[in-house]
Every structure is written in C-alpha cells, then in structure tokens.
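Example record for the data management plan.
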Amino acid sequence: MPSHRGDYTIESLARGLRVLTAFGPARPEMSLQDIADHVDVSKAGALRLGHTLCEAGFLVRVGDGRGYRLGPTAITVGLATTATMALPEVAEPLLVELRDVTGETAQLAVPHGTDAVIVGRVPSRQFPPNPVYIGHRVPIHAGSLGRAMLAAAPAGTCDEVLARSELPALTPRTATTPEAIRSDLDRTRRRGWALNDQQTTVEHRSLAAAIRVPSGAPVGAVNITVSASRVGARVLARTHAAAVVHVAARISELLPEDFAGRTDVA
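Corresponding structural encoding:
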C-alpha cells in the first residue's frame, strides 16, 4: 500500500523549521547563502524564508542585514524549558540585537553579593570594546549595571547591600556615600535606566536597565558601554536609552516567576 506521508507535509513550513534547527552553539549566525544551501533553495527563496521568520520573531537580522540569528520568539516557543536555562542563554539573541541596533558593546550582568558580575557580552563590530571579560566584577554601587539592579530592588534590600559594601572609589567621579548613591538610585527609578558617567573608568560611559521576573524582582541588567571621548553622557542617553530599556523589557518578558536562572546569582 503506498504511503501518503508526503501528502500531509507543508514543504515551506518544513523548510522554515529546518532553518531554525540549523542554528546552534557552533553556528549562531547564518548568511542568506547559508540558508539557501541548507534548505536547497535559491537566494530569493532564502530571502523570503528569512523575511517570514524575522516578521514572526523567530529570527533577527544582524550586521548589514545579510545575516541572521535566532530571535526572541524562538526562545518563547521553548518557554517551558526556559526555567531550566541560565540568564545568558535566554538573553544572548537580544544582546546581539542590542549591539546591532546601537553599534555599541552590549553586556549582561547578575548581582552577586555587593558586586555586579558580567555573565554575557557581545562586542561592538565598529568600535574597540572596553577591556572587560566574562566573570569580571564591578562594585554594585559604581557601575550602571549594578545601580540598575539596586534601583529595581526593594528599599530594604538596597539598604542591606549598601551597608555591606565598602563603597570604594574607582575614579574621582564614583559616588561613595550612601546619600549620593541613594540620590542617583532615585533618578534611576524615575527615568527607568542607570547612567555610569566615568564612575568605573574615566575612559568609558555606560547605560543600563534592569531585567526582572513578573513580580518585579531584579535578576540581572543589560547595558551598552561607550568611549567617553567619543560619546557624551547626554548623547548616550538621548540616542540609546530607549533601546536599552526596550531590550531589558523583552528579556524580562521571557522569564517566568520561578526562573531557575535566578538561583545562579545568589
């Protein structure tokens, strides 16, 4: 008896799924030609596939628009397994998007005691990145990532962290008194983002927003970092604050309340 299996296959859908499953740790990005070769279609067909998957959020364009990475919807589809993932895995596609939208180095941090710890980083394609590495620690009161998380935390938690911190001065511009830090945290809460204006190094500025679970508790923060000689504080805020806040909110939307990744930061 002949098989009718092929009669029930939607070939265009099958091709789209084959594109999505082609991505992985060894292949985080694919060009239009890569997609065409992988599913055996013309470049025009690959362009239609890429456009459709981007429109649905399964892919995002990178660089000059000729490459693709997995997008946030691809993560949302797997939300049942997201609770077992670490925050860098969840955030990575959106960090790439933030880098590509702003042109600047994008970073992800989680709180650990009185420090913010860098756990994700996507260097700028256009500008030399700052000399920061995965695992780098910054006193939580000094940088934009730490202050974004502190501002999102309950007042009691914030006071406890500040009481335990030595509040070192990393540059002459670092706020080192609880009063000055609380004043800055108030500004951060009002505008929704934290600014580091040469408070960790005199060579760099950065702008960050908190990542939260549905209850509002902060589990991390995302930022972009720029050269202080190239970008002023006002220009940084005016040009990129909205993009940073938007990406932080989109990462937050992917996290369930019982996000297991949050236990990695304790």
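Summary line stored alongside the record: Residues 233-253 form the longest helix (21 residues).
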